Amino acid sequence: MLARHSPKKSKRGSREFMAARASHFGLSDDVDSRNTHARVAPNGEVGYSVREALLLSLSRVGPKHLTRGPGRSRTKTTRKPLPSLLFTSRSIVKPIQFAYPLILAVLVATWLLADSLAPEPFTYFAFRTVFMQFSGVIAIGVMSVAMLLAVRPRWLESRLNGLDKMYRLHKWLGITALVVSGLHWWWAQGTRWMVQWGWLVRPQRRQGPAVEVAGVEGWLRGQRDLAESIGEWAFYAAVVLMVLALVKRFPYHLFTKTHKWLAAAYLALVYHSVVLVKFPYWGQPAGVLLAVLMAVGTGCALWVLAGRIGAGRKVSGHIESLTYYPELRVLETAIALAPGWPGHGAGQFAFAMSDPGEGPHPYTIASAWDPAHPRIVFITKALGDHTGRLRERLTVGMPVTVEGPYGRFAFIDTPPRQIWVGAGIGVTPFIARMKELARTPGDKPVDLFHPTADFSEAAIAKLTADAEAAGVRLHLLTGNKDGRLDGDRIRAAVPEWRSASLWFCGPPAFGAALRQDFIAQGLAARHFHQELFQMR
């Protein structure tokens, strides 16, 4: 059980804990322009305004500044990237801002080619019939795409600019499916209740001899009652599992064990959909699209239930050394890897597991890759129950399984200089990048700002040595004595900031405030880089 920050909080009211809780329910992490700075405090990573504290308290805990996933790091004149890391840096959320409405638009458009939400004559029950079909198609469609994202396909990770963005899209598709399927359920079940209560009068069935339907359509009609019953119970199960995924207090290791059973609920809903979708749809674009999505989703669901996610990206290893910094409550874990690891870029992240009962957790990689000495280092802070137990549970020689690497927080861009902001434990990916630059110097001036509430002579000495070896100018802000870090202070320290890109890792609310501030001052949005990594 290697260190990431736990979804469970360790101390109520802890500023460190609040800093680890960042708002991630929106597709953008921007906050009010007035909240453009953070204060280093003795009992936490960064201090916030009252408004930011409210934002943090309403957000949920997920792998944030302990689980940054920067991608392959290099400058224009350095080594070639690994084949699996061919990507370019993009805007912080642009890919998912585009993908999410596109998915919905395609589903809606293809359905409208097959049917209409304005039946004639327009009556309650006529509208109910078409809306049930519409909502059912949208719900199973977005669930199918979410199921595809759940298996972490490499080709989609690069196109969506990292696994953090991919999981953000997965989450919002899940929420969409929850809302739409809830409406679908209400129009089905609520209508029955309203008829029973006498609020509605069901129209009389048409008189005449029953028409026998043979073939596939006839078989599907014979399955309707069973499909409705299975769909209803699968919906209830899916609602419970989705709500648990959204409840921040639900322990992460239990979330990972229960969330996979959504795949079983999905399979039941696929059967429900195949039977109850209007038969004429199957010969139209809506039916073709739905068939493809459900076929792909079914394969992914079976893959999830078989426990095969990331199977081709796992290698074994053992803990080589453990170094604890008591002043920081930080544990440095070095793992020697068996053959098979493809290499990683500075600051990418990996899933690691030492206890099958706990399951895998994502961790930032804090070391440069050296094929001659295959090892990986994680630097983590005790911010919750899980990370608080790691120091006692981990031992040298303990076997570990590592899966990855993941992440697209690449130090690759066009501006001639870079500004890094590593707040608290968020300095981890920059440590890895500095180790790379020490081996292969780059041609870009770099300024690293590191605000931290805690001070350790040994840790700061290592950080300073890494910065000197990499040719990075270090700006250290410790406790209250150095004051707060904000956009004005960064711009004063780096007068050439307009020709730089800014790379941020730390409390997301702080990062969002810096992003909004710098963009308001003229920095291009594409030159501000920040991970949105979430696992739930």
Task: Write up what this structure looks like.
With 536 residues, the chain is of the alpha/beta class. The protein is 43% helix and 16% strand. It has helices spanning 15-20, 50-58, 94-114, 124-150, 154-159, 163-196, 215-222, 224-246, 252-259, 262-276, 285-305, 385-393, 428-439, 457-470, 487-493, 508-520, and strands spanning 21-22, 37-41, 44-47, 60-61, 314-325, 330-337, 349-353, 361-364, 375-381, 399-406, 417-422, 446-452, 473-478, 485-486, 500-505, 528-530. The strands form 4 sheets. A 6-stranded antiparallel β-sheet has the order 8-7-10-5-6-9, covered by helices on one side. Helix 3 packs parallel to helix 6, helix 4 packs across helix 10 and helix 8 (224-246) packs antiparallel against helix 10. Mean pLDDT is 81; it is low at 1-92.
Count every helix, treating DSSP H or I runs of 4 or more residues as helices: 16
The largest sheet is: 6 strands, antiparallel
What is the total tally of β strands? Answer: 16
What strand order characterises the main sheet? 8-7-10-5-6-9
Structural class: alpha/beta
* Strand percentage: 15-25%
Overall outline = elongated
Helix content: 40-55%
The low-pLDDT segments are 1-92
Q: What radius of gyration results from the CA coordinates?
A: 26 Å
Kindly report how far apart the N and C termini lie.
18 Å
Output mean pLDDT. 81
Topology:
Elements: H1 15-20, E1 21-22, E2 37-41, E3 44-47, H2 50-58, E4 60-61, H3 94-114, H4 124-150, H5 154-159, H6 163-196, H7 215-222, H8 224-246, H9 252-259, H10 262-276, H11 285-305, E5 314-325, E6 330-337, E7 349-353, E8 361-364, E9 375-381, H12 385-393, E10 399-406, E11 417-422, H13 428-439, E12 446-452, H14 457-470, E13 473-478, E14 485-486, H15 487-493, E15 500-505, H16 508-520, E16 528-530
Parallel strand pairs: 11-12, 11-15, 12-13, 15-16
Antiparallel strand pairs: 1-4, 2-3, 2-14, 5-6, 5-10, 6-9, 7-8, 7-10
